[in-house]
Specification:
The protein is an alpha/beta fold. The protein has two domains: 249 residues, P-loop containing nucleotide triphosphate hydrolases (Rossmann fold); 167 residues, Rossmann fold. Helices cover 35% and strands 18% of the residues. The protein is globular and about 65 Å long.
């Protein structure tokens, strides 16, 4: 069900597909009726296989190409990224040496994915087809590379910048580049960023201090926007967007992939490690993610090891499976996170122990099993975690989400079932637990 409110992979869209849908007729910025100019906007789209528009693209592209600010609200894998990238490539001038579009992401991993798609679209079309200069896309995703980026910016500013908010603010505070020529600002995974105490202040400053909503087109994108009417109101009142901002909400009738089977096991807190171990031994997953909650401030002050490290140590000594046990969490430095993901992508089998950072932007299609060692805090977080599996296109392979819960947490899981419309099967504890 889709709604447009005023004030799976990346499924593609092409010029041919747009011409086949009357809803893609739009009014361009000069006020004249028109259609996408394939020579200018989509020279590479068909080459890289973008053919069929998703529902969110059908709903959002007419709004985006009319020049209005937009809140793209649709589940993970629905095609939001391609929708806002098509907007960006419709308005930038590759002949102009200036930052014209900025995409802000909460994690480096998501930034890498967005950059990859942007660079595919930005590449020069095949020879003798369309004569145009390809635009440059800068990935500003970690502090360790800022020196190289500084030299790049001095030599020739990129057309499009994909950045984490921390790296972006470092560059802006040092006056290494300006946003005076920016035409489009995208805040991706906006709910995650506004709920992060580390990022929300910088995001607000970017929206109001570094540039004005009146001089740019602003796009917010997320799989979930709790209290979206309130967010729409705040966008206008806080001047994060213009007053005619449009909320495009595509709510899938079945938000979970049909190939997912949801299960839960009830045990005491003291039994959780053994319960997880028994489940792993029974499932024998080739590739999976085990989600662990963030360490509490009280635990940190007490000098305790993070629960992720405790679990990794336990599994390395107790689990006899063939999979490597790897760690991924937000507070790891860039090199450690990159090393873990590199092992994952090149290894035969693995179990990735992760905090929720892995639910945003890490794309590992071979994942078949998700284990919630700790329940996520919200239904939205459950959806993001579950969305890490069942991602292989055209595969009918069964995938599993297993929840290790205490008796007191059963009602929380039931609430998630009701909100996200899925059924969770109870598994009995194995005899050796």
């Amino acid at each position: 069900m889709a709604s447009v409110t005023s004030a799976t992979q990346l499924l593609p869209v092409s010029q041919a597909a747009i011409k086949g849908h009357s809803q893609f007729s739009f009014t361009n910025r000069s006020g004249e009726g028109g259609r996408l100019d394939s020579a200018r906007n989509l020279p590479r789209a068909e080459e890289v296989g973008y053919v069929v528009p998703t529902e969110v693209q059908q709903q959002a592209l007419p709004v985006l190409f009319s020049g209005r600010d937009c809140i793209l609200h649709a589940q993970t894998g629905s095609g939001k990224t391609l929708a806002y990238l098509l907007l960006i490539f419709s308005v930038i001038n590759s002949q102009r040496s200036a930052v014209q579009a900025l995409i802000v992401v909460p994690t480096r991993e998501l930034g890498i994915q967005v950059t990859k798609v942007a660079r595919m679209l930005a590449a020069k079309p095949k020879e003798n087809e369309v004569e145009q200069k390809s635009c440059t896309v800068m990935a500003l995703l970690d502090g360790g590379m800022l020196r190289r980026h500084k030299s790049w910016l001095k030599a020739e500013p990129p057309t499009i910048v994909v950045a984490t908010i921390a790296s972006l603010c470092q560059m802006l505070e040092k006056h290494l580049f300006k946003l005076e020529s920016m035409q489009v600002l995208v805040i991706d995974e906006v709910d995650f960023m506004f709920n992060s105490s580390k990022q929300v202040g910088s995001v607000r400053k970017l929206l109001t201090s570094y540039s004005s909503c009146n001089s740019r087109q602003t796009v917010f994108a997320s799989a979930s926007i709790p209290q979206h009417n309130r967010f729409l109101y705040d966008c206008i009142q806080q001047k994060w967007s213009k007053r005619d901002v449009v909320h495009v909400h595509v709510n899938s009738i079945e938000p979970m992939p049909t190939c997912l089977q949801h299960r839960f096991m009830i045990c005491s807190k003291k039994q959780r490690h053994q319960t997880l171990l028994s489940s792993l031994q029974s499932d024998a997953p080739k590739s999976g993610i085990i989600f662990v909650g963030e360490q509490s401030e009280k635990s940190k002050k007490a000098g305790n090891a993070p629960p992720t490290i405790d679990l990794v140590d336990f599994l390395k000594t107790s689990y006899g499976g063939s999979s490597d046990i790897l760690l991924l969490e937000e507070d790891m430095n860039f090199n450690s996170r990159a090393a873990s993901l590199s092992e994952v992508r090149h290894g035969a089998g693995y179990l990735l122990v992760a905090t929720d950072i892995a639910a945003r932007g890490v794309d590992l299609p071979e994942i078949t099993h998700i284990y919630n060692f700790d329940l996520p805090r919200t239904a939205v977080d459950y959806l993001h975690r579950a969305g890490r599996t069942g991602r292989k296109p055209f595969s009918d392979e069964k995938c599993y989400v297993t929840n290790i819960i205490t008796p007191e947490e059963r009602f929380v899981l039931q609430r998630y079932e009701n909100e996200l419309m899925f059924n969770c099967e109870e598994l009995s504890l194995l005899s050796n637990v």
